[in-house]
């Protein structure tokens, strides 16, 4: 799985989420990229990203996040950056930051993250962002980059939805989601986030709680999936009724992304 990961200095969790076996073949490599924010990207990082030929960027962050941490782009980048205006996480904070409010221990952090995931698929600005994501994948040419702040929660949900709609085996869906926990320089990523979370909420938050907030757990994605199925019966029906991904759009996704 780590063969998928590109290690950059200032961009975390950068990886290819294509290549998995799907219902009608295999997802193409080199077309589907995901990551965290690019605000801290170095010139070498930007050059490495430019080499991937990305023509579409789908930014799942909210307005406040984009304003506070504007992503850097290589001077040669001439692609399209898509986002929905508003706050995709329900506040000005990323989900892992929002979950840090009022917690101290790892167990409390895990419970807070699970509660956030239960509602994440129905947050209206994120829904609009996901609608843009699926529209872009079905209609635009070239490679795409999907990212949020940490590249693990909103991005993880979006990638899992695409995988499921294209028939990727559930084991691979979860393996790709959990790859966040070992992708790239974990110590640097967690330390940077830990300083921000403690500055916002206080020093009482344990190291284990910070690691929990900055990681992913199967129970988080399971919580989102369970909420989707409770309301809509299936991922396919949710995608069609909420995100506009009907049978025609699913076929377009297969034609673009599966060989």
From TrEMBL:
This is Tyrosine-protein phosphatase. It comes from the Bacteria. One of its GO terms (molecular function) is phosphoprotein phosphatase activity. It holds the Pfam family Y_phosphatase3. It comes from Sphingomonas mucosissima. Belongs to the protein-tyrosine phosphatase family. InterPro entries: Prot-tyrosine_phosphatase-like, Tyr/Ser_Pase_IphP-type, Tyr_Pase_AS.
């Amino acid at each position: 799985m780590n063969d998928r990961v590109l290690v950059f200095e200032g961009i975390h969790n950068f990886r290819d989420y294509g290549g998995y076996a799907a219902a009608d073949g295999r997802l193409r490599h080199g077309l589907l990229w995901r990551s965290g924010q690019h605000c801290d990207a170095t010139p070498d990082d930007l050059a490495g990203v430019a080499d991937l030929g990305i023509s579409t960027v789908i930014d799942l962050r909210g307005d406040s996040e984009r304003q506070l941490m504007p992503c850097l782009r290589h001077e040669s980048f001439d692609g399209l950056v898509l986002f929905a205006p508003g706050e995709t996480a329900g506040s000005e904070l990323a989900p892992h930051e929002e979950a840090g409010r009022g917690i101290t221990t790892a167990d409390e952090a895990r419970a807070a993250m699970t509660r956030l995931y239960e509602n994440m698929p129905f947050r209206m600005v994120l829904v609009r962002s996901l609608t843009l994501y699926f529209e872009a994948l079905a209609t635009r040419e070239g490679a795409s980059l999907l990212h949020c702040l940490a590249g693990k929660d909103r991005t993880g949900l979006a990638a899992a939805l695409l995988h499921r709609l294209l028939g990727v085996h559930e084991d691979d869906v979860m393996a790709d989601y959990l790859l966040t926990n070992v992708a790239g320089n974990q110590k640097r990523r967690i330390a940077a986030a830990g300083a921000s979370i403690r500055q916002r909420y206080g020093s009482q938050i344990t190291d284990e709680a910070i690691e929990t907030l900055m990681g992913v757990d199967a129970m988080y994605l399971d919580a989102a999936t369970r909420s989707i199925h409770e309301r809509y019966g299936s991922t396919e029906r949710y995608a069609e009724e909420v995100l506009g991904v009907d049978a025609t759009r699913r076929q377009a996704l297969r034609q673009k992304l599966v060989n």
